Amino acid sequence: MNLRYKTWQYWRDEWVKPILYALVIALFIRTFIAQPFKIPTSSMTPTLQPRDRIFVNKFIYGAQLPLANIRLPKVRDPERGDIIVFRSPIERKKYLVKRLIGKPGDIIEIKNQHVWINRKPIEEPLILKRLTYYNRGEYGKAGKSITVPVNSYFVLGDNSLNSVDSRYWGFVPAKNIAGKVFLIHWPISRIRIIK
Fold first, then answer.
1. What tens-digit pLDDT sequence spans the chain (195 residues)?
2. CA 68 to chain centre
3. DSSP for 48-102?
4. What are the two backbone dihedrals, phi and then psi, of residue 10, each rounded to the nearest 5 degrees?
5. Catalytic residue numbers, as ranges
6. What residue ranges do the domains of the chain occupy?
7. Continuous segment of H or E residues that includes residue 21
8. pTM here?
9. Local structure of residue 190 (DSSP, 8 states)
């Protein structure tokens, strides 16, 4: 009897407790701090390649509490040029990764293969000046200006020819945003911080 008690106590103290603590810590980190994702397509080439594994900063925009529509306090709002991960507006269980182009209230137009914001060609950040965007989809037609609604964002893939993005399905509600991509952690040859 005493031997069985010591055996259970040994297993509890040496194995069960540490494993439970590790699971709780891992769940906390994944829910509120950083979450891993895998890039499935070439829509963000050359910035992100298919099969890149990334980490997403969840607390920067305010992590969402599980099973609730409540967000924790944020560090800052999403900014133009951020690469974000978000729940698809058309397939709720699917996560997408795109570059944030338009913020609430911005007037967006794609012309001459460049993005114009509020009637001016995009000026910042530098990466957006080098990317080419093609007129495609309902929201990306040539000569069509659209205004980004309140609490919504306009996103585009860096690989404009191979990206289904806001040009096709419209805007990303702020509540759908999971976080900002900050690190490629695999494969080893592509490890880098994403700014």
1. 455 556 777 777 777 888 888 888 877 777 778 899 999 999 999 999 999 999 999 999 998 877 777 888 999 999 999 999 999 999 989 999 999 999 999 999 998 888 999 998 887 766 676 788 889 999 999 889 999 999 999 999 999 889 999 999 999 999 999 999 999 999 999 999 998
2. 19
3. S-TT-EEEEESSTT-PBPTTSS-BPPPSS---TT-EEEEE-SSSTT-EEEEEEEE
4. -60, -50
5. 43, 98
6. 1-32, 36-193
7. helix 17-32
8. 0.86
9. G
112 conformational bin, left if phi > 0, alpha if psi -120 to 50, beta if neither: left
The tokens describing 131, both together, are 């990317």
Q: In whole angstroms, what separates CA 21 from the centre of its chain?
A: 28
Residue 53 contacts residue 186 (beta carbons within 8 Å): yes
Sort residue 15 into left (φ over 0), alpha (ψ -120 to 50) or beta.
Answer: alpha
Q: What is the sign, positive or negative, of the torsion defined by CA atoms of 43, 47, 49, 51?
A: negative
CATH homologous superfamily, domain 36-193:
Umud Fragment, subunit A (2.10.109.10)
* Spatial CA neighbour of 39 closest among 189, 195, 174, 183: 183
